[in-house]
Please model this.
Amino acid sequence: MKEKAKPMHKSTVSIHAGNLESPIFGEVSMPIFQTSTFSFPTAEEGAARFSGEKNGYVYTRIGNPTTNALEECIATLEKGYAGMGTATGMAAVTTVFLALLQQGTHIVSTGSVYGATRMVLEKEFSRFGIKSTFVDTSDLNNIKQAILPDTRVIYIETPANPTINITDIRGAADIARKHDLLLVVDNTFASPYLQRPLELGADIVVHSLTKFINGHSDVVGGMIVAKNEKLYRKVKEVLNLFGGTMDPHQAWLVLRGVRTLPLRVEKAQENAEKLAQFLMQHPKVAWVNYPGLPDHPQHQIAQKQMDGFGTIISFGVKNGLEGGKVVLNNVKLFTLAVSLGGVESLIEHPAFMTHASVPKSEREDAGILDELIRISVGCEDYEDLRDDLDQAINKIPSGV
Ligand SMILES: *Cc1c(COP(=O)(O)O)cnc(C)c1O
Model:
C-alpha cells in the first residue's frame, strides 16, 4: 500500500490494502505468485534473507507475496501488527494454541465455541497435558472463577456459535491483564467489518476465512492477527515450523472475496435484521436469538462493541426437535449445509450436525438446545428468504 496521509476507512482498506506498491506491469489485481521457492541474486543476499537481516522472500511455507497481500489486508482491517495466513481456520486456532500453551498449562474457553475448537482441546491437546475449562463467557464472573494458577490463555468466541451469545471483549481483556494472561478472540462470526477485538484489548485474533471474509463458500482458509511484533514473532515461528501455511492460490481467491466484504455484510445484515423480526412474530416460532433484538440478553454489549449485529440467527420452533426437522426438510431456497458467511443463505441443526460430538448434557449447559436451528443469512432478496422460511415453518403440524 502506498503511504497515505491518514488511515483509510474499512471499505477502502478492504478494496485496496495489500496491493503491490509498484505493480510489475501496471496490474490492478494482485498477481498469484505461484512459486514454492525464490531465487537469490547473490549468496550474500540469500544468507541475509535467511538470517532475517534483510527482508525478502525465501520459500513459500515461510512467506509469499500473494499470501502477504491478504495478510496485510486483514491485519489492517483488524488494526493489528501483522497477519499470518493459514491453510484453514482450524490451522489458525491450533497454531495459536501450539504457540501459547505448553504441558501443564490451562486455557479457559467459551463453552459454545466452534465444535472442532472444543474437540481439539478436549481430545488432542489434552494428550500433551494441556488442560481446558469451558464456561459461558457471556458472564464474565464465569471466566474469573475458572482461572487456575496454570492458566495462560482466555479464548473467546463472540458472537458464539450457535447460541449467538455475546462476550464483553473489553471486560474479558481487563480480566486477562489483571491475571497476566493472553486474550485470544475468534472473530469469525463478526468479521473485522463489524468488530475489531484488538482495539478492545485482545492480544490475538483468529479467523476462519472460509466464512465471511472469503464469502463465497468456495475456499477454506484461516488467519491469525497479532497485536504486536513480539506475539507475531512467537506465533510466526510456530506456524513456519508446523507448516499449516496458506497457499498463494488460496490467498488470491480470498483476496478476491475480501474486496466485497463490506457490501456483502451490509446486505446480509439488513436481511438478517428483517428475518429476526419476522421470526419473532411467527406463531410457530418459540424463541429467537439475534443480538439485534432488544430482548437479547447481551443486546447492549453487542451495541457497544460491534458496528452491527451480524447475519447469524438461531431460533427454536414449537414442537422442538420434530418441528425443526420439518423446517430443515422443507426449505427450498435455504441450503441445508453447515458453514456460514457466504452469499447464499444456509440452514443447519447444531445438535445433529456441527455439535453432535458434544455430549447432550454439555450441549445443554452451553445453551445448545435440541430444537435450536441456525441460519446464516445471505445476500438474496429478503422477500424470497422470508417466504421460504414461512412456508417451511408452516408445514409443522399445528395443535402441538
Ligand atoms: C468454521 C469455523 C472455524 C474453523 O474454520 P475452518 O476454516 O473450517 O477450519 C473456527 N471458528 C469458527 C467460529 C468457525 O465458524
About this structure: The two ends are 60 Å apart (CA to CA). DSSP finds 15 helices and twelve strands in the chain.
